[in-house]
Write a structure and sequence with these properties.
Elements: H1 2-7, H2 10-14, E1 21-22, H3 25-36, H4 38-51, E2 61-62
Parallel strand pairs: 1-2
Helix pairs in contact: 3-4
């Protein structure tokens, strides 16, 4: 599901906004799922997506997987 979202252009193409974070929220979620498993990975990913709420931020925020 995440791979399909990324392949389709992600938030830049689908929502006309760019992610505030590096790595992007979808990549962060994917890395969390790989590292922690589906349940904890999704939980961490959703928490990150909730923090991604400044669409016009000029500078990216670097936030790596814990």
């Amino acid at each position: 599901m995440i791979h399909r979202y990324q392949a389709s252009g992600g938030s830049k193409k689908l929502l006309n906004i760019e992610c505030n974070f590096e790595p992007t929220c979808s990549e962060y979620t994917k890395q969390c799922i790989i590292k922690y498993g589906a349940i904890k990975g999704w939980r961490l990913g959703l928490s990150r997506i909730k923090r991604c709420n400044q669409p016009d931020l000029c500078q990216k925020i670097y936030d790596e997987v814990p």
